[in-house]
Design a protein that fits this description.
The protein has 3 helices and 22 strands. The chain is mainly β. The protein folds into 2 domains: 23-36 and 128-332, Thrombin, subunit H, CATH 2.40.10; 47-121, PDZ domain (Pdz3 Domain, Roll). The relative contact order is 0.20. Residues 1-21 form the signal peptide.
């Protein structure tokens, strides 16, 4: 899939009380994440004038985060399909929306205004969310992947995205905006929509999970647990330019033992001069970068201290493996 630099792994077997250790393919690839919805999402509403009266869809109990699934009984899954159905209904100046809200299907009336062949409804909408992250691992045995390691906050609704469909794609890092104190840096990457890597089946607090497509030539590595981690030197694997995965040296400074799934189990400092020179530490787009210590995959990068960009946090790999196994069990059932 990608060329991996500076990695030599000797693997051995260990066990854990939470999950049996397993062999997976090491990630580190920058990926494009495209999340799709079970309908067209409403991200907001605005007021317009219809027949001399102010109208806002919110007055008809139409809310942000509602998913429009049908217009006058016709299924819609994209903005293009929604626009077509609203155009057909425009002569009647209203349409019945079928909306999914918190797992419940409801009906709401929407007024439509047509001006110079342009439809106005008072709705702000989208049918996908795009972002950049890092692949953590691929499980060859189950053909599943894990990435990101944390929730995705919707830029429009400011709430955590919970979804079960989408695609991850190959991406190339074109530049990096360096982190500064109190200002997060960012990878700028080009998503190759012609090269899908996997199908997303779950997006939640612990990241993005799904089924891999195609094959990968990445090296195999044994997973570890929080009991295997110790203070001191470790590495993260991530892309700083194009599609070349690099080993970045870090120093683990604190281990927060956890009995249940949670985030920020690992605290570390970036000590790699090359990474500090290029990005000044952890930047947006590195989330999901695998953390390796003593030839074991033990975690994934998740957060950065914006006041000190060379200080980062990670999630224990066992929590990602648990999510992957839960997803595999659900599919099998």
């Amino acid at each position: 899939m990608k060329k991996l630099l500076a990695l030599s792994l000797s693997l051995y077997l260990c066990t854990t009380l939470q999950l049996s250790a397993k062999e997976v393919q090491l990630g580190g690839d920058t990926i494009g994440i495209q999340i799709t919805y079970d309908g067209v999402m409403i991200t907001g509403t605005y007021t317009l004038e219809i027949d001399g009266m102010n109208y806002n869809p919110a007055d008809q109990d139409i809310r942000p985060k509602d998913l429009i699934q049908a217009v006058n009984g016709e299924t819609v899954t994209t903005i293009k399909e929604l626009s077509r159905q609203l155009g057909l209904a425009a002569e009647h100046k209203e349409a019945e929306l079928t909306i999914l809200r918190d797992g419940e299907t409801i009906k709401r009336k929407l007024l439509i205004q047509m001006i110079n062949s342009q439809i106005r409804t008072g709705l702000l909408i989208k049918d996908e969310t795009l972002g950049i992250g890092t692949l953590t691992y691929i499980d060859e045995q189950t053909q599943t992947f894990a990435s990101l390691g944390h929730e995705i906050i919707d830029a429009d609704t400011k709430e955590s995205i919970q979804a079960d469909s989408g695609t991850i794609y190959e991406s190339q890092v074109q530049s990096i905006r360096k982190a500064k104190n109190a200002q997060a840096g960012e990878k700028n990457a080009k998503i190759d929509f012609e090269q899908p890597l996997g199908i997303i089946t779950k997006v939640n607090r612990y990241g993005v999970f799904g089924e891999i497509v195609g094959s990968s030539s990445q090296p195999l590595i044994q997973t570890g647990t929080q009991q295997d981690i110790h203070l001191g030197e470790a590495s993260i694997f991530t892309v700083l330019h194009d599609d070349v995965i690099e080993e970045i040296k870090i120093n683990i400074t604190k281990i927060n033992q956890q009995d249940n799934q949670d985030i920020k189990g690992i605290e570390f400092d970036v000590i790699d001069d090359h990474c500090i020179n290029v990005s000044n530490g952890i930047v947006q787009g590195m989330s999901g970068s695998p953390i390796v210590q003593d030839d074991l995959l033990v975690g994934a990068v998740t957060h950065v201290a914006t006041s000190k960009p060379q200080k980062g946090y990670g999630i224990f790999i066992e929590w990602l493996l648990m999510e992957s196994e839960n997803e595999t069990t659900n599919v099998d059932n």
